[in-house]
Amino acid sequence: MAPTVPLAVLALVALVAPGLGVAPACDYPAHRWCSSRDIAAACQVESRCPNLPRPAAAPVELSLYYESLCPACREFLVMKLFSTWLLLPEEMLNITLVPYGNAQERNVSGKLDFQCQHGPEECLGNMIEACLMDEAKNFSTYFPVIFCLESGSSVTKNLEACLQIYAPELDSGRIATCVQGDTGVALMHHNAQLTEALDPPHQYVPWITINGKHTDELQAQAEESLLGLVCHLYQGEKPKACGGSKAPKILSGCRR
Asked: For this UniProt entry, which residues form the secretion signal (predicted)?
């Protein structure tokens, strides 16, 4: 028995019947023209298929340039960025973390050395988080650990405890080897390059870029209500979390 053709498709056939422009590349039977976006595009009937699923929207790209012991950086990451990430679906927000901030890179006798705004402990914290990201690879694995470090009593002393809670599958020994060796130095050098390449150059941290751009307005909006900003910029279907209210401003940043 031949398949039953829905009335809507019959109407579509009538509209694009011979002489009205079905694409030459369309070699699909009429009852399949609206079955997928690719087929509808091949048959040039997309505008006549109202029930096609909408193409996936690109995620909002957010990059956070920060330093591990800056109070304002820690508050933004813990109170705004992490909570926003938890509330939104994975495909809606893509986050890049660059722990370096206002550090300075120097070449001392052929070896790279780093000086950080809040002292050697901050340099260690930056490198621990960079090595953690390199070891874990997956953002959803390492971000809760970084949240734990930044929200705890010590960024540099709580790695083992935070791993046990959020990512017990990770090897703290491998992270320590990274921190103490050439890999950690290379990761910090990479973060230094990323930070120094910012346009406009960063003046303080946390320094936030949205979809590759930084403006005073975007920075202020991200600090005022990051959830609201991401919901406004995302072009896809909005989740229920996007009905939230604005949050209060956070501490002023750590200037250079």
From this structure: 1-21
Q: Is residue 178 part of a domain?
A: yes
> Among 93, 95, 63, which Cα is nearest to 195's?
63
> For residue 37, how far is the Cα from the chain centroid?
27
Counting residues of the chain whose pLDDT is more than 70, the rounded percentage is 85
We report the CATH number of the domain holding residue 113 as: 3.40.30.10
The number of angstroms, rounded, from the C-alpha of 106 to the middle of its chain's C-alpha atoms is 30
State whether the Cα torsion 71-76-253-97 is positive or negative: positive
Q: What is the pLDDT of residue 90?
A: 93
111 domain-assigned? yes
Are 56 and 92 in contact by the 8 Å Cβ rule? The answer is no
Report yes or no on 115 lying in a domain: yes
Taking alpha carbons only, the member of 83, 94, 76, 68 closest to residue 212 is: 94
What gap in Å lies between CA 237 and CA 67, rounded to an integer? 34
Structural domain count of the chain = 1
241 burial via Cβ count (<10 Å: 0-12, 13-18, 19+): middle
Domain containing 139: what range? 60-236
Under DSSP, the state recorded for 77 is: I
Residue type, 209: T
Q: What phi and psi values does residue 138 have, to the nearest 5 degrees?
A: -80, 125
Model pTM score: 0.78
Strands across the sheet containing 93-99: 93-99, 60-66, 207-210
